[in-house]
Amino acid sequence: NHLMIxxxxxxxxxxxxxxxxxxxxxxxxxxxxxxADENQTAGELAIAAAVAIKLGNDQEGLRLLTLAVQAxxxxxxxxxxxxxxxxxxxxHQNAIDDYDVVxxxxxxxxxxxxxxxxxxxxxxxxxxxxxxFDAAIATxxxxxxxxxxxxxSYYYAKLYEHGSRQFELYQTYD
Length: 174
Description:
- The chain is an all-alpha fold.
- The protein is 72% helix and 0% strand.
- The chain has helices at 2-11, 16-29, 42-54, 58-71, 76-88, 92-105, 110-122, 126-139, 148-156, 160-170.
């Protein structure tokens, strides 16, 4: 099943990252709590969400991920998967809200910092995006050279020297 779903995930442009997160949620959770109305574990709901998304039904995927989050509210991987789907669906404030919860549980989660920063930028919170990008880089300094998004945030914040320096650094990234 894992190989089949992974192969399916690669065929839909842009959804491979979301699919990977959903599969991680399903397999790392080893969820035991069942939902009476769905009679499925949170992990099974995450797998069903991945399939729904693959079939182009993002709304059903969102519904299933929401059930998984409700079943295990402290399971950050399910919440991260839902945040990623919200981002995909351009529901950036909902994504930010879920990334906030993930970051309360794991303050140095580089992926959540990076993606929340991107969502904040899209919501017009340029300062917040710079804060998140800086925090991600502080956690993983190897990100700095390849972080072109921070350069764009600097530009929108009218921090032109910082932006210029960021883009110069980006030119050294392979």
